[in-house]
Specification:
Structural class: mainly alpha
Oligomer: single chain
Number of helices: 5
Radius of gyration: 15 Å
């Protein structure tokens, strides 16, 4: 979320790398489910759209909309991850946890 909130002109390589590493880490740490994979895809796509809006001809309205969409996608990812089970790799490395009940979605 910090990357999405703070990224501006000249900082999009940082956003893209943060997104790439976050997606890779989550795919390594949790057992994949359709919901988690879809949420990871939406978050990655939304972050890339934000980076493209910042890199393109700068339009503050478009950047604002893309930033809001990226935040929403990240909140969706967090909600999906609340039900995640640790992967075998995570358990082997002492990173196990208990999945939590889903929180109600507030719109």
């Amino acid at each position: 979320m910090l990357a999405v909130d703070r990224v501006g002109p000249g900082m999009t390589p940082w956003l893209r790398e943060t997104t790439r590493l976050t997606v890779l880490a989550q795919r390594e740490w949790v057992e994949p489910t359709t919901r988690i994979e879809a949420a990871l895809q939406r978050a990655g796509t939304a972050s890339e759209a934000l980076a493209a809006a910042i890199d393109g001809p700068y339009d503050s309205g478009a950047v604002y909309e893309r930033r809001a969409a990226a935040r929403a996608a990240l909140y969706g990812l967090v909600a999906a991850l609340r039900q995640a089970a640790p992967s075998v790799w995570a358990i082997e490395h002492g990173l196990g946890w208990q999945a939590q009940r889903p929180l109600p979605v507030v719109r």
